[in-house]
Design goal:
Structural class: alpha+beta
Radius of gyration: 28 Å
Number of strands: 14
Largest sheet: 8 strands, antiparallel, barrel
CATH topology of the largest domain: Porin
Strand order of the largest sheet: 5-6-7-8-9-10-11-14
Distance between the termini: 16 Å
Helix content: 10-25%
CATH class of the largest domain: Mainly Beta
Length: 321
């Protein structure tokens, strides 16, 4: 936890006294009225942790005792979306961050985790009430914002996104807007070689590159496992190059589509998880690749880009928290 002030050694003595007062107060059970007062200012997003607002409020009230909590304070506790032992704590007063701490990882047992977070909150409250001036920790706020982001990469296998089964790669960045809602930006690339044409001895190679923007919703499925769905828009380019034909040429056409996806993430560590996703892509326009008759200019042989198409991907996800 980070505090700052202008009282030198006196501040350290006050902090130490606050800790002693807290430990001394923790021996008696909290009154129901004190727990209700804490619940009024406590905001808990458990994520993948076992944190519960009432149990945490009881821990805080037991430490704070009769000192109470100012009405202008807000205590925000956010559990990691994937790590059952990861917790981020912020104490705000008049919309200013006066204390901040992360547990990476916190205690393994639920009781110990509630006790550790409750003590950290109580100590932050003591310090914030005893100091006249607390500087807002800009570095902590920057760190908190950074921890809402994640990066992912996945190897793909697709069916009907191109005329043949095609491998590919997907990359994306995700920004969490809350415990269950996120925005995702990314892209994918697929390659299909030697796609055959009817009545022709040759064919073509096809490359499909798509960018995508999605809105996503997710929730905890089991300990260390989250499930989610996404929906959004895709846009990009299909490039086809003739191979083994009497006259080879190449062409590129724009492609636009609607996309949806469903996936799972399994936690591997506090920052890493393994993601698996199934996607569906529906084209917004018909696309065909083929040859034309030299004399009439009419289509001679062609293959359509199927719709809907499907893709499955698996790969690592790095979470900044």
């Amino acid at each position: 936890m980070r505090w700052s002030g202008r009282r030198g050694s006196c501040t350290l003595l006050i902090h130490a006294a606050g800790v002693l007062c807290i430990v001394a107060a923790s021996g008696s059970p909290a009154r129901a009225s004190d727990v209700d007062d804490v619940l009024d200012v406590l905001r808990v997003q458990p994520g993948a942790t076992c944190l519960e607002d009432e149990q945490l409020a009881a821990q805080v009230a037991q430490h704070v005792g009769e000192d109470g909590i100012p009405d202008d304070m807000v205590i925000s506790v956010k559990g990691s979306a994937i790590d059952p032992r990861g917790v981020r704590l912020s104490v705000l007063r008049e919309e200013r961050t006066v204390a901040y701490r992360t547990f990476e990882p916190g205690p393994a047992s639920c009781h110990a985790l509630h006790a550790a977070v409750g003590l950290a909150i109580a100590l932050a409250l003591k310090v914030s009430q005893q100091e006249e001036e607390v500087q807002e920790p800009a570095a902590a706020d920057t760190d908190a914002r950074a921890r809402q982001w994640s990066l992912s990469a996945a190897g793909l296998g697709s069916y009907r996104l191109l005329p043949e089964v095609a491998p590919g790669l997907a990359l994306s960045v995700r920004h969490d807007l809350g415990e269950h809602v996120a925005l995702r930006l990314g892209g994918m690339g697929l390659l299909a070689f030697d796609v055959g044409l009817p009545l022709e001895s040759g064919g073509f190679d096809a490359t499909l590159v798509l960018g995508r923007a999605d809105a996503c919703a997710s929730g905890r499925l089991a300990e260390g496992v989250r499930a989610g769905v996404c929906a959004g828009l895709l846009g990009g380019v299909l490039h086809a190059a003739g191979q083994g034909l009497d006259r080879t040429d190449s062409a590129s056409v724009p492609v636009f589509a609607l996309g949806s996806a469903a996936g799972l993430e399994a936690q591997l560590s506090s920052h890493w998880s393994l993601g698996f996703e199934l996607s569906t892509v529906v084209l917004l326009q018909g696309v065909r690749v083929g040859t034309r008759d030299d004399s009439s200019g009419a289509p001679a042989a062609s293959r359509a880009l199927p719709s809907p198409g499907f893709a499955a991907g698996i790969g690592p996800v790095y979470h900044f928290f």
